[in-house]
Amino acid sequence: MVKTDEVLKRLDGFTIEIPSWGFADTGTRFGKFFQDAAAATIDEKFADAGHVHALTGCCPTVAVHGLWDFKKDQSPREVAALARRHGVRVGSINPNVFQDQQYKWGSIANRSAEIRKMAADHIIESVRIGQAVGSNVLSIWLGDGLNYPGQGDIIARKRWVAQALKAVHATMPAKMTMLLEYKPFEPAFYATDIADWGMALLLCKAAGKQARVLVDTGHHYPSVNIEQIVAWLLDEGMLGGFHFNDRKYADDDLTMGSIDPYQTFRIFHEIENHRFRTGKDPALAYMVDQSHNLKPKIEAMLQTVDMAQQLYAKACLVDRKELALAQGREDLVASESIVRDAFLTDVRPLLAQWRKAHKLPIDTMAAHRESRYEARAAAERRACHGPKAGGGYA
Ligand code: PSV
Ligand code: MN
Question: Lower Cβ count inside 10 Å, N or C end of the chain?
């Protein structure tokens, strides 16, 4: 059996980045349901993230989005100082090349050289922002793609994307990692320009040595074996990190582990297996990518972080020496049981021990509710921003 002390030590090294956009009002394309306590400014987003980190002790960084979080009248250094004031740091920088009108026909895969340059320049600007705020992670996702057969030249687009990524990579400082995210569909529905991990991998190789693949758990077709992708990328030294969330159908952005906790556990199991094989700690960025439409945003984030720690701790419990022996005997039942027993172990007492040792509340949700943070934030934000109009298309 794996010793409790070892798992507690592993938990010390487990941090998870939360996204600024997880605290803001979001919706579906059918409409938005506003929450009074939702954060409207970067200051409010960092305040909420700081509150989550103070309760959980394992979310020191916040992912930010170019267009949503950096305004013209605020320098990146000021944004970094704001984060520090709330007890967190700026984490991954996510350029936004999917929202502005000029990107109707794509960004770095656009037929127009001028728009491709505009998009690449914005991503390069994100590199500069990263340097200014002390972040070493540039996280790229493109909304580029085709909606109809015949709409564009797939190979020309592939080359344009590779070219732009290479140009961006050339501007990155040595310590920065470029994370490249793939998604099979949405917003494009016929051919997304970076549709799967194979395409992302090839583009990373084309971009340069500091590029790695980012796996967003929601960006796979149902029944795809995500942990196998993770294991392969790890073995190739090409896995950079994760966007965690859960889904029933596609990119549903549901709370991590709410639908299929065994799936995320199996991902962590492969990561721990890689560590066991190589004796090395893979440098991975664990990030949450969820936007909560109906749950209170901070509570959803607290649930997520608690679930992430639980599933990670469970994966650490797998007795890998016993597993190797059982595999050697082709003992399927024992092999599966070793993995499943770890998953079925109640690690909540272990987490309680970890939180106690770090002087954190054992029950983070109860502590949050007792703090009345949400009611205070709602009152302050209502007074500051006024009432919100509901309904309508997003
Ligand atoms: C796209 O669906 C995505 O997963 C990308 O990571 C974006 O940055 C994020 O969602 C925006 O919510
Ligand atoms: Mn994502």
Answer: N
Residue 72 lies in a domain: yes
In a domain, 391, yes or no: no
**Best of 64, 96, 103, 141 for a ligand 1 pocket test (most atoms within 8 Å of beta carbon):** 141
Model confidence pLDDT, tens digit, residues 294-341: 999 999 999 999 999 999 999 999 999 999 999 999 999 999 999 999
Say yes or no: CB of residue 94 within 6 Å of ligand 1.
Answer: yes
- The count of structural domains within the chain is 1
DSSP type of residue 389: P
CATH of the domain at 277: 3.20.20.150
Tens of pLDDT, residue by residue over 146-175, are 999 999 999 999 999 999 999 999 999 999
Ion ligand 2: protein residues whose beta carbon lies under 5 Å: 216, 243, 289
pTM of the predicted protein model: 0.97
Q: What is the pLDDT of residue 190?
A: 98
Is residue 124 situated within a structural domain?
Answer: yes
**Across the strands, what pairs with 243?**
216, 287
- Ligand 1 centroid–CA 218 distance in Å is 10
Q: Which domain holds residue 355?
A: 4-385
Residue nearest to atom 6 of ligand 1 (CA): 141
- Whether residue 393 lies inside any domain: the answer is no
Distance CA 342, CA 312 (A): 11
What are the φ and ψ backbone dihedral angles of 69, each rounded to 5 degrees? -115, -15
102 Ramachandran zone, left/alpha/beta (phi>0; psi -120 to 50)? alpha
